[in-house]
Amino acid sequence: MQHFLENHHHLWYVIAGVSFLVELSIMGLSGPLLFFAIASLTTGILVNVGFISGWPSEILSVGILSALIAVLLWKPLKRLQNTKQKTDNSSDMIGLKVPASADITLTAGSIRYSGINWQARLADNCEVESIGENSQCEIVAITGNTMLVKPV
């Protein structure tokens, strides 16, 4: 412990490392601890080069840098987390062309595949209002046990 009291920069490096580990392993890059870890690392570097010294200025530095980093990185990280996968390949049924066994609308309907009637509804980006019975449609996604389809 005496080592960290004499070498403040080492303590900030350890705090940054522990914060990164907790953020990555438990929180899953959700943000707040990531900003604190980057600020702690930066403060450690500033202490090491002699730009700042003393506990009060180091703690103030971590606080200010945490806020500044949060402001700068919040939107880019949110955008990164919210990117959606363009193609859904989570099921081998996606992409199949199947007949509608009942009229399909935005809220209800059914398709016939492998001798079974499956619940279906129109995909959100579909240009038509309904698909008639016995018309061909393509499965574009699956939500729970409901197939999202579009006309062929």
Keywords:
152 residues; alpha+beta; 4 helices; rod-shaped
What's the layout of helices and strands?
Blueprint: H1 2-6, H2 8-27, H3 32-48, H4 55-81, E1 97-102, E2 110-113, E3 116-122, E4 136-143, E5 146-151
Parallel strand pairs: 3-5
Antiparallel strand pairs: 1-2, 1-4, 2-3, 4-5
Strand ordering within the main sheet: 1-2-3-5-4
Please report the number of helical segments: 4
Characterize the main sheet.
5 strands, mixed, barrel
The rough form would be described as rod-shaped
Q: Percent of residues in helical segments?
A: 40-55%
Compute the number of strand runs.
5
Task: Assign the structural class, choosing from mainly alpha, mainly beta, alpha/beta, alpha+beta, or little secondary structure.
Answer: alpha+beta
| Fraction of residues in β-strands | 15-25%
End-to-end CA span = 70 Å
Q: Are there runs of 5+ residues with pLDDT below 50, and where? A: none
Mean residue pLDDT: 87
How does this model look, in words?
- It is a single chain.
- This protein is an alpha+beta fold and 152 residues long.
- It contains 4 helices and 5 strands.
- It has a 5-stranded mixed beta barrel with strand order 1-2-3-5-4.
- Strand 1 (97-102) and strand 2 form a beta hairpin.
- Helix 2 runs antiparallel to helix 3 (32-48) and helix 3 packs across helix 4 (55-81).
- It is rod-shaped, with a radius of gyration of 27 Å.
